Amino acid sequence: MFEASEIGHSIDKAKFAREEPRLRAELLDAQYALKEYGKFPVIVLIGGVDGAGKGETVNILNEWMDPRHIHTAAFAPPSEDERQRPRMWRYWMSLPPRGRIGIMFGSWYTEPIVNRVYGLSSRAQLDASIEEINRFEEMLAREGALILKFWFHLSKKDQKKRLEAIDKDKKRTWRVTKADWKQFEYYDKFFRVSEHTLRLTSNGHAPWVVVEGKDPRYRYLTVGKILLEAIKKRLAEKPGSKDTQSHAAPIVRPIDNKDILRQMDLSLKLTDTEYKSQLEKWQGKLAMLARDERFVRLGVTVAFEGMDAAGKGSTIRRLTGALDARQYHIIPVAAPTDEERAQPYLWRFWRHLPRKGRITIYDRTWYGRVLVERIEGFCSEADWMRAYGEINDFEEQLVRYDTVLLKFWMQISKEEQLRRFKEREVTRFKRFKITAEDWRNRKKWDLYQNSAADMIERTSTEIAPGPWSKPTTRSTPASRC
Fold first, then answer.
1. How far apart, in whole angstroms, are the C-alpha atoms of residue 146 and residue 139?
2. What are the residues whose beta carbons fall under 8 Å from the beta carbon of 426, sequence distance 6 or more?
3. Which in 63, 167, 189, 295 has the greatest CB count within 10 A?
4. Residues 471, 475: Cα–Cα separation, whole Å
5. Does residue 148 contact residue 44 with C-beta atoms inside 8 Å?
6. 423-474 pLDDT, tens per residue?
7. Strands, sheet with 299-306, edge to edge from the N-terminal-most edge strand
8. Phi and psi at residue 301, in whole multiples of 5°?
9. Which of these, 354, 357, 352, 353, lies nearest to 289 by C-alpha position?
10. What is the 3 state secondary structure string of 399-444?
11. What values do phi and psi take at 145, rounded to 5?
12. Sequence ranges of the domains in the chain
């Protein structure tokens, strides 16, 4: 892949002078057309060899277009706040909204490659990261993002010449450090690891473009033209051309109509005395755990889903009654805001993930896509069908990075729901809990039950089981607790 780029590409000054003004004008037009259309974001990844012109090219793109509508993120080693959350959190937080261009100088590729080069990870760990990246980028593409990945290449000989030239220039010698020369010693290994990574992550929805970085005029025009044509091509696509039908095998109900929800024993209950005694006991245990000095090593995410009036709100109040208010954050999930609709579906859940030593409680969750959005037609069949896999990926990342993940489905019978609805209507301090929407949803009881059963079956995994699952022997933060 890299050898093919070492052709010696160059652009003379006269040609650059002729083409630059027109390219700048067209890029600016395309940027504003993208902003006005507002249907998809453009994500530009900049990676490659040090000294190959990555920074200069990013500066040129900001100069040629309106920088007010470009979000440029340069990723250094993770900050303390970033280390407190799953690895991908900081990249999710840097994604551009629809209608905008985001330039990522360094990206989710940097850490896996660097760790492998310096022997901090194995080949198997690198390949696992590559597989995770491929699924992430496929999700972004299916959410509508236009992804452009540029890898700036410079031969070992040319990189050495550039470092020496800068080092000898008294005005620029500060740009070259001992760390730069140390990294140069690893050039061959960087080459091998990077080529392996690029080969496995260049695909139809997010291919790599290798740019020879020796000649600045060539790389500027190359990147600018590719960016321009990609945006123009996407803008020219007909609205609604996205495939909204899933090509996977359809979900079929069990022929005996049995599922985990219909098999639950809903007659189980505690007496008032037992309840008060048990509540005090377990709230006390929870309070002690939250104060344990080891708690700062874990983040806790609690997900509540269930039928209307099943007791999510009251359960959350009992849970938080045992905690210091400074430790937790409750996220009530409703219809997405304009800001949230401008991002991939899971973004609004990533943004609230707790740092270590903190607890986030979601009242309704990311499962909305395979429940209410599926039933009400708020997303396409293709979207909710792929969501099962995306949710499993999301939860696996949480658990892998020391998050205790707890998932609760609150179930009641249809008869008990009706009783509670009527009670809310006649009880003054409970009237706010019942709306016309609740009564409308009740008419779709069977649809919600079937969707919930599908959800539980497809997202209760060995690494992130639901409470309805058999105990797992896998050593995860959740099982250690």
1. 11
2. none
3. 295
4. 11
5. yes
6. 999 888 888 888 899 999 999 999 999 999 999 999 999 888 875 444 333 3
7. 328-332, 359-363, 299-306, 403-410
8. -120, 125
9. 357
10. HHCCEEEEEEEECCCHHHHHHHHHHHHHCHHHHHHCCHHHHHHHCC
11. -70, 140
12. 3-236, 272-480
Tell me the pLDDT tens digit for each residue of 164-184.
887 777 677 777 777 778 888
Instruction: For domain 272-480, say whether CATH 3.40.50.300 is its number.
Output: yes
345 three-class SS: coil
Residue-wise pLDDT for 39-91, tens only, equals: 999 999 999 998 899 999 999 999 999 999 999 999 989 999 999 999 999 99
Counting DSSP H helices and E strands in the chain, the numbers are 20, 9
Strand, coil or helix: what is 41? coil
Q: What are phi and psi of 247, to 5 degrees?
A: -100, 5
First to last CA, the chain: 47
Enumerate residues 6+ apart whose C-beta is below 8 A from 228.
Answer: 23, 26, 27, 30
DSSP string for residues in 132-195: HHHHHHHHHHHTT-EEEEEEEE--HHHHHHHHHHHHH-TTTGGG--HHHHHHHTTHHHHHHHHH
Q: Domain 3-236: what homologous superfamily?
A: P-loop containing nucleotide triphosphate hydrolases (3.40.50.300)
Predicted confidence (pLDDT) at residue 393 exceeds the cutoff of 80: yes
Query: Of all helices (H) and strands (E), which one includes residue 287?
Result: helix 272-291
Nearest to 327, CA basis, from 304, 352, 308, 299: 299
Q: Which residues, 6+ apart, have CB-to-CB distance to 438 below 8 Å?
A: 308, 309, 421
- Identify any residues that bridge with 212 across adjacent strands, giving them in sequence order: 153
